[in-house]
């Protein structure tokens, strides 16, 4: 939601609005509306066109119109089939007729309607048994020769506990408050950009001019809505640009451009960096050598080798005498990183530590002491790294892995653990360009587009339920030929959703028993899911990594971080329940060695839309293509919401459809901020105050996170 100007009107209580009494105030409170400004979040869903009166002769089925006529007949009756009462009048104009029916009408109103009277009716025309009619139309006494006032009436979302007319009158009172407010953006700037101020757009959105010609668009397709979408994205880009300007303006201790530790690490690798890895390392190394904090997003597909680049960055910072931290979203991924880094780091003599919430309290206390004293130079951990009681001796670099699992607030929380540390954000979840610009506009972007050579090719196949047995025969052959396999289910226990069958293979407990029945006992089957104790889950993971477990039945707990080169097959039950991005992450668990891999997607109750999604998954290996497709189908969701990003949700803009608006918003933000990063120009005072509100919301959320 775009921030409102800092004006007392928006902070007024609901009781100050005409028509809002104690009872209605309670109803609005329950819906989260506490001030006049809150009510501006309620948007019209459509408009009623009352600009002209349509004669009876021109009425056609499904038209929503204002029409008129003289009452020809009045009657009450009952439907013969169900005995339901009705009240009916028939309007006549020449030879044309229109029936109007009401199933409930107060007696005093019925008794006041007589043949010969003239009425205006507004409603939707229907055709029933060859005659035109309206059900429950609005009715107004009409004097022949008089012309009703042209009107475009907004229709708001229906609330069970608020009458539509009541809500419309309240919103009309709220919009009146916008009339006297100054423009948020300077008028000269608006004129130069051929734009209308957002407050004027809000007024137009709720009260479109009745003198406009042509058919009425839906509110979300109107020029006012599209302009508000542009301003919403502009405020978002201004927020990110101001954050970036603050970071760039802060000094930081540069690292030596040629780190001995990083050089020894990279030269000792048993493989050559890919072109993408080399370019990423050069960009990050250059950032670390500058006297300002690095704020960079390192994006690469599953298996692209981001961890190698991140470790080189961490060793560079450690070589300069400071500490580095790697924060992962889950204990599984944190332990995976720890085990991956340990042989390299120990060979270089760098003290390494692990800090997760699952460690015993005594061990966690010891880790905190070692970090505060500087005895640990590189630490891997989870949210425990941003806990209130933790302090570093001198944190120089914070690496945040799988950023989509965190948010802006968590990123800033880790930054507060040091004085201007470098920040490196990593994600293996391909982020569409539109979302990357929205969520990470305050970060510089580095992409590793290629995968290391020698990786096995992965083929993906979609199978209907009747071909499940063939899929499991393929699984058994793969295991018997020396491979390992993942089998994934979308939930833990049968009975959690609509299917209570004991043979429901979308439940991982049932699935693991099914696998043990089918697979020869000399090939052990393991089970992991998110409700297991951390040590129990990690023991199964260790057995799978070591090859002692050959088949792992799992939920999406294995989505990120598990690196088993011998795993060559993944079978996903209930694949239609997953999004494309999540399926791509799961598929990334295989093909990490030189042997080819197979991904088998078993579609259970998959409709046409789900089957189309799975077909796209089978056709494409490029995670960025799949991410764009996933965004089109599922929307930005919480990715663009306050929960994930720490920024207000988008009320008017739609991504990725509005990418052109986002690009324009970015250009406008750059034009405003580059000559005046602090927005000190008095003409932009209201813009600056609105941005301060967004900062305040972020800080409140940050306090909750910390």
How many beta-strand segments?
A: 23
- How many helical elements? 23
Biggest beta sheet summary: 8 strands, mixed
Q: How much helix is in the residues?
A: 25-40%
Strand % is: 15-25%
The best one-word shape is globular
What's the end-to-end separation, in Å?
24 Å
**What is the arithmetic mean of pLDDT?**
85
Q: Which residues sit in consecutive blocks of at least 5 with pLDDT less than 50? A: 496-502, 636-648, 700-706
Rg, Cα atoms, Å: 32 Å
Class computed from helices, strands and strand pairing: alpha/beta
Structure description:
The protein has 706 residues and is α/β, with parallel strands linked by helices. Helices cover 37% and strands 18% of the residues. Helix 17 (534-545) links the parallel strand 20 and strand 21. Helix 8 runs antiparallel to helix 10 (306-319), helix 9 (275-288) runs parallel beside helix 10 and helix 13 crosses helix 23 (685-705). The longest helix is centred in the middle third of the chain and has 26 residues, at 223-248. The model is unreliable at 496-502, 636-648 and 700-706 (pLDDT under 50).
What would a concise description of this structure say?
The chain has 23 helices and 23 strands. With 706 residues, the protein is α/β, with parallel strands linked by helices.
Element layout with pairings:
Blueprint: H1 22-30, H2 36-39, E1 46-50, E2 53-54, E3 64-78, E4 85-93, E5 96-102, H3 107-111, E6 118-124, E7 126-128, E8 131-135, E9 138-141, E10 151-155, H4 164-176, H5 187-193, H6 198-206, H7 223-248, H8 260-267, H9 275-288, E11 295-300, H10 306-319, E12 323-327, H11 331-347, E13 352-355, H12 361-373, E14 378-381, E15 395-400, H13 408-415, E16 422-427, H14 433-439, E17 444-448, E18 458-463, H15 468-480, E19 484-488, H16 508-518, E20 525-528, H17 534-545, E21 551-554, E22 567-573, H18 580-587, E23 597-602, H19 608-619, H20 623-634, H21 642-645, H22 659-673, H23 685-705
Parallel strand pairs: 2-3, 5-8, 11-16, 11-17, 12-14, 12-15, 13-14, 15-16, 18-23, 19-21, 19-22, 20-21, 22-23
Antiparallel strand pairs: 1-10, 3-4, 3-6, 4-5, 6-9, 7-8
């Amino acid at each position: 939601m775009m921030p409102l100007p800092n004006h007392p009107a928006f902070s007024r209580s609901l009781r100050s609005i005409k028509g809002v009494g104690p009872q209605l105030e309670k109803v609005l409170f329950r819906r989260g509306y506490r001030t006049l400004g809150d009510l501006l979040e309620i948007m019209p869903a459509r408009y009623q066109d009352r600009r002209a009166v349509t004669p009876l002769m021109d009425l056609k089925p499904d038209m929503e119109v204002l029409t008129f006529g003289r009452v020809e007949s009045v009657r009450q009756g009952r439907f013969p089939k169900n005995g339901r009462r009705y009240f009916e009048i028939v309007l006549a104009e020449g030879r044309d007729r229109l029936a109007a029916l009401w199933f409930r009408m107060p007696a005093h109103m019925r008794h006041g309607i007589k043949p010969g009277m003239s009425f205006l009716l507004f409603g939707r025309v229907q055709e029933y048994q060859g005659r035109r009619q309206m059900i429950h139309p609005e009715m107004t006494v009409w004097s022949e020769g008089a012309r009703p006032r042209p009107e475009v009436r907004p229709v708001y979302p229906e609330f069970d506990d608020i009458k539509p007319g009541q809500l419309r009158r309240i919103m009309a009172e709220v919009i009146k408050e916008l009339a006297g407010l100054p423009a948020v953006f300077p008028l000269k700037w608006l004129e130069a950009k051929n734009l209308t101020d957002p407050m004027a757009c809000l007024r137009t959105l709720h009260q479109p001019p009745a003198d406009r010609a042509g058919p009425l668009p839906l509110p979300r397709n109107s020029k006012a809505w599209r302009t508000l979408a542009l301003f919403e994205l502009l405020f978002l880009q201004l927020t990110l640009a101001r954050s970036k300007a603050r970071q760039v303006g802060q000094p930081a201790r540069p690292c030596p451009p040629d780190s001995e530790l990083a050089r020894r690490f990279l030269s000792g690798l048993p493989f050559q960096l890919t072109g993408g890895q080399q370019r990423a390392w050069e960009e990050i190394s250059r950032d670390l050598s500058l006297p300002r904090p690095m704020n960079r997003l390192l994006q690469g597909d599953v298996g692209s080798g981001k961890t190698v680049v991140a470790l080189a960055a961490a060793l560079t910072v450690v070589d300069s005498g400071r500490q580095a931290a790697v924060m992962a979203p889950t204990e599984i991924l944190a332990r995976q990183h720890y085990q991956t880094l340990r042989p390299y780091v120990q060979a270089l003599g760098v003290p390494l530590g692990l800090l997760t919430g699952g460690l015993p309290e005594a061990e966690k206390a010891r880790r905190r002491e070692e970090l505060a004293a500087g005895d640990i130079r590189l630490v891997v951990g989870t949210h425990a790294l941003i806990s209130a009681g933790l302090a570093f001796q001198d944190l120089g670099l914070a690496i945040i892995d799988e950023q989509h699992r965190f948010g802006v607030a968590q990123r800033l929380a880790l930054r507060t653990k040091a004085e201007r540390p470098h920040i490196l954000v990593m994600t293996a979840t391909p982020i569409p360009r539109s979302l990357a610009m929205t969520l990470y506009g305050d970060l510089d972007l580095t992409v590793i587009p290629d995968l290391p050579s020698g990786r096995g090719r992965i083929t993906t196949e979609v199978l209907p339920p009747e071909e499940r047995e063939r899929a499991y025969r393929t699984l058994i052959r793969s295991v018997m030929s020396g491979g390992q396999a993942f089998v994934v289910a979308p939930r833990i226990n049968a009975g959690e959703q609509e299917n209570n069958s004991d043979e429901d293979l979308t439940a991982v407990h049932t699935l693991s028993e099914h696998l043990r029945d089918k697979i020869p006992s000399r090939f052990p089957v393991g089970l992991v899911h998110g409700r297991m104790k951390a040590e129990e889950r990690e023991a199964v993971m260790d057995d799978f990594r070591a090859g002692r477990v050959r088949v792992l039945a799992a939920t999406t707990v294995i989505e990120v971080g598990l690196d088993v080169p011998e795993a060559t097959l993944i079978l996903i039950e209930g694949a239609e329940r997953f999004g494309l991005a999540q399926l791509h992450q799961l598929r990334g668990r295989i093909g990490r060695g030189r042997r080819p891999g197979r991904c088998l997607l078993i579609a259970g109750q998959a409709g046409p839309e789900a089957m189309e999604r799975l077909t796209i998954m089978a056709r494409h290996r490029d995670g960025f293509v799949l991410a764009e497709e996933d965004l089109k189908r599922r929307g930005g969701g919480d990715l663009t919401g306050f929960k994930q990003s720490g920024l207000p949700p988008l009320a008017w803009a739609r991504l990725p459809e509005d990418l052109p608006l986002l690009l324009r918003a970015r250009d406008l933000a750059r034009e405003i901020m580059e000559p005046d990063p602090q927005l000190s120009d008095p003409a932009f005072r209201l813009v600056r105050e609105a941005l301060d509100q967004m900062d305040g919301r972020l800080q409140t959320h940050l306090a909750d996170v910390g």
